Amino acid sequence: MATKEELQAQADAEIEAAKPLNKSVNGVVSEYSDSDYAQAKIDLGNQKWNDQEFGYIAARQSAFPSIGDQLDMIYWDKVNDTTTWKDAIAKVKSDNPKPE
What we know:
Elements: H1 4-18, E1 22-25, E2 28-31, H2 34-63, H3 67-80, H4 84-95
Antiparallel strand pairs: 1-2
């Protein structure tokens, strides 16, 4: 897992490699100013950090079965003495691990 400083260094390098970047203000296109580049680096660094630290949450949310499907799994697990629900949840969590 990368540190915040390492991710910021990656972001800085990506912005530098993407130069020149342009913006449009009131229909006028111009290259980023030094402060625009500085802010873009900060924003990209923060995005990389958030993706690393919290990206697993959205990945898990989209991978979990619906509540209705989970309740159905739990019901049939009780009826059939199986572990379908527990196995499904464990797979989602192992496929999308929480950072340590």
